[in-house]
Prior knowledge:
The structure holds two protein chains of two kinds.
Chain A: H1 4-7, H2 13-19, E1 26-30, E2 42-48, E3 51-58, H3 66-70, H4 75-83, H5 90-105, H6 113-141, H7 146-166, E4 175-176, E5 179-180, H8 188-211, H9 214-220, H10 228-233, H11 239-243, H12 250-253, H13 279-305, E6 329-337, E7 340-348, E8 357-361, H14 363-369, H15 371-374, E9 378-379, H16 380-390, H17 394-398
Antiparallel strand pairs in A: 1-2, 2-3, 3-9, 4-5, 6-7, 7-8
Chain B: H1 3-14, E1 19-23, E2 30-33, H2 38-47, E3 55-63, E4 70-79, E5 84-93, E6 103-105, H3 113-124, E7 128-130, E8 158-159, E9 162-163
Amino acid sequence: MTNTTSQTPYKTRYEKLIAEAQSSEMILNMGPQHPSTHGVLRLELITDGEIVKEVIPHVGYLHRCFEKHAENLTYQQTIPFADRMDYLASMNNSHAWVMGVERMLGIDKEIPKRIEYIRVLVCELNRIGSHLIALGTYGIDIGAFTPFLWCFRDREHIMNMLEWASGSRMLYNYIWVGGLFFDLPVGFEERCKEFIDYFRPKMTELNELLTENQIFISRTANVGILPLDVAISYGCSGPMLRASGLKWDLRRVDEYSAYPELEFDIPVGSGKMGTTGDCWDRFKVRVDEIEQSVLMIEQCLERLMKDLKRTPDFDPRAKLPKKIIPKEQDFYLRAESPRGELGYYFITDGKSEIPKRVKARAPSFNNLHVISEISRGILIADLIAIIGSIDIVLGELDR
Amino acid sequence: MGFEDIKQLLTDKFGQEVVLGEEISGLQPALLIQPDRIAEVCLELRDNEKTFFDFLSCISGVDYGIGENMFGVVYHLSSIPYKTQLTLKVKKYYDRAQEGLPSFPSVYSVWRTAEWHEREAYDLVGINFENHPDLRRILLPDDWEGYPLRKDYKAQEYYHGIKVD
């Protein structure tokens, strides 16, 4: 399909696909208001009966000019915009943004340990919340209603805790350049421990109800198989890439923040129910990642309650720079968000508080791209299973 | 393989006229490549056993400012087996008054990731990619006027009768 432009009268591959559709084929629009597209995503399908011949994604319905905004605001003012990119994992977004700015300023080594641990704690809580949505909505996509309610019930506890710490429910603006908005409220660690004790058995229940459910396995195993070489070539990252069997987690590769001091495994897909890289593997990797996040939270809590205990004179804003003017350079920072490699590319001029150029590399953007490759010749119902297993957040995809 | 080794490797393979220089002042050093040869350089970096940059993290189109009339593309490469990263840059003089867009070769044939990233650079910065199979706007509507991330961008006043604010 490469180099079609030079030989045919069509300017783009898209034009060619639409123009050369057979009379027996139907062009079908799925979305932008389709419930299982997880937001405003439009997929144009060329179908032959129930068989999908080609999938053409159309994105951009939720474009909010993040990069343009970032070029007109100071670094601290952009944090709320970064929060709104992936609205299910705001903490992870702002953590990556803040780390990038701190490294450019050269203050990343001076951040107190307690602050780093609180950052990792809230990020992992947020990761669990984000994965719970992925799991719950995936269940509902393919017909299991109860797990959705269970996941939202458990996620609500996380939302309440993070609201207690930051003041807002979903979009926190909690992690700041050089520190935090506030210290954790008194009693947060204890409540977090209670939540972990409550949450562990709930995951076992969810696994019994959904992960090992025979109907669920029949719908997801051997569906939407993503081979590893395709995943790498398309730039897939996060659970998508790991489900295809590669141990690649930026928390381990780049060793940022407090992660080098924490013990955790990197779950990978093994093809237990079908083939490595199928929808079930992607689901299972997220389930396993929740368990690893729980382990990390426990380690963070232990340190936060012992040697990094809260002291009356501890000020999380003590290291906040008065003016953020990084010296002239360009810098790309990547971090592991629940969906994969989240990257920010900064170009600064060394004179102003406003970056010259910012580019956000959204994991969902690359993860969705692969859909047209793995969805040729499948049934329409399986396409729903594949979209859900990619776990896209359109806010981040369109930025 | 360190940055200097990679530079040496590319200079040996392609010669001085392809590896134009380096930027080593910041935290991440970058190689400046001759724009017309970028796809070959990328293919070499991907396939050479010593570098093996099999993962393309990001492509960013950049407008370097109104006065400079310089457009560029920045490639962030990552190697999974070696756990290394590399930044490549291409730059071209482009007068804003002239017809057409600044044009660079597409690296779509090296990494599929490039397809959507290049569409995005075309959409927002207005950079043409030669031999791209499907160069359309991606985030903005097809009939949008102008390229919003250019430094001289002015939004159109009305879009289908709706005031643009």
